[in-house]
């Protein structure tokens, strides 16, 4: 019973933090999410109450779930599932480099197994372009593990090892350390995952 009460308290605290973050984001000055003042126009009150929704373009490409890593990466065996990870990354890089729209586009990547396979095969000029996008925070990394592991049924050593492997790759190749924990495929929750994010 005490554990359930503690979980409820933590859940409510996280919700309050999230709501506080949303309120703070809505009131701060942001060129992409401007506050619209009421200048006496009778319809402006509707604009002041408008909720701005921010969509985070990202991937979640399972490393070896229904197909092999190479089948996912190269878009093979699509009778099981349509997936072509290398093509996703190629298209993202092209779109983020578009001089007409690139200034307000971002992308977040998660699984380093696929990213490392793609990145290591890039020609130097594209690696340089990608590094510029990372420096401008248009291409970012969340979680940064080798894969996005399941939470509930995974041993904590596996969680630590695969997260460490992904982080080491990012630090060595790009000088990046992920600042955001991202777990959208948990299949349950574990104490080990919360401690990894802490």
Please explain how this structure is put together.
There is one protein chain. This protein has 198 residues and is mainly alpha-helical. It folds into two domains: 1-54; 56-197, Alpha-Beta Barrel (7-stranded beta/alpha barrel), CATH 3.20.110.10. The chain has helices at residues 2-27, 44-48, 69-74, 85-96, 112-120, 124-135, 156-174, 191-197; strands at 107-109, 139-141. The protein has a two-stranded parallel sheet with strand order 1-2. The radius of gyration is 20 Å and the shape is globular. Residues 1-28 have low confidence and may be disordered.
Summarize the structure.
By secondary structure, this protein is mostly helical.
Topology overview:
Blueprint: H1 2-27, H2 44-48, H3 69-74, H4 85-96, E1 107-109, H5 112-120, H6 124-135, E2 139-141, H7 156-174, H8 191-197
Parallel strand pairs: 1-2
Q: Could you give the count of β-strands?
A: 2
Query: What's the overall geometry?
Result: globular
Mean pLDDT: 78
CATH superfamily grouping of the largest domain: Glycoside hydrolase 38, N terminal domain
* Structural domain tally: 2
The proportion of residues in beta strands is under 5%
Strand order of the largest sheet: 1-2
Regions with little confidence, pLDDT below 50 for 5+ residues: 1-28
Based on the structure given, which CATH architecture of the largest domain is correct? Alpha-Beta Barrel
Here the CATH topology of the largest domain equals 7-stranded beta/alpha barrel
Order of helices and strands: HHHHEHHEHH
User: How far apart, in Å, are the first and last alpha carbons?
Assistant: 25 Å
Number of helices: 8
Structural class: mainly alpha
Rounded radius of gyration (Å): 20 Å
> Quick one: biggest sheet?
2 strands, parallel
The CATH class of the largest domain: Alpha Beta
Helix content: 40-55%
């Amino acid at each position: 019973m005490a554990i359930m009460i503690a979980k409820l308290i933590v859940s409510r605290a996280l919700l309050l933090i999230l709501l506080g973050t949303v309120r703070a984001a809505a009131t701060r000055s942001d060129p992409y999410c401007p506050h619209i003042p009421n200048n006496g126009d009778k319809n402006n009150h509707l604009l002041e109450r408008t909720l701005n929704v921010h969509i985070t373009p990202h991937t979640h490409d399972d490393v070896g779930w229904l197909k092999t890593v190479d089948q996912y990466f190269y878009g093979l065996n699509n009778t099981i599932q349509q997936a072509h990870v290398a093509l996703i990354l190629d298209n993202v890089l092209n779109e983020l480099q578009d001089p007409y729209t690139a200034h307000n586009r971002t992308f977040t990547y998660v699984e380093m197994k696929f990213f490392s396979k793609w990145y290591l095969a890039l020609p130097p000029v594209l690696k340089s372009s990608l590094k510029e996008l990372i420096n401008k925070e248009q291409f970012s990394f969340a979680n940064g593990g080798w894969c996005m592991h399941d939470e509930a049924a995974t041993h904590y050593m596996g969680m630590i090892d695969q997260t460490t492997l992904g982080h080491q790759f990012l630090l060595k190749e790009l000088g990046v350390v992920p600042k955001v924990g991202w777990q959208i495929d948990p299949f349950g929750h574990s104490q080990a995952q919360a401690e990894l994010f802490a």
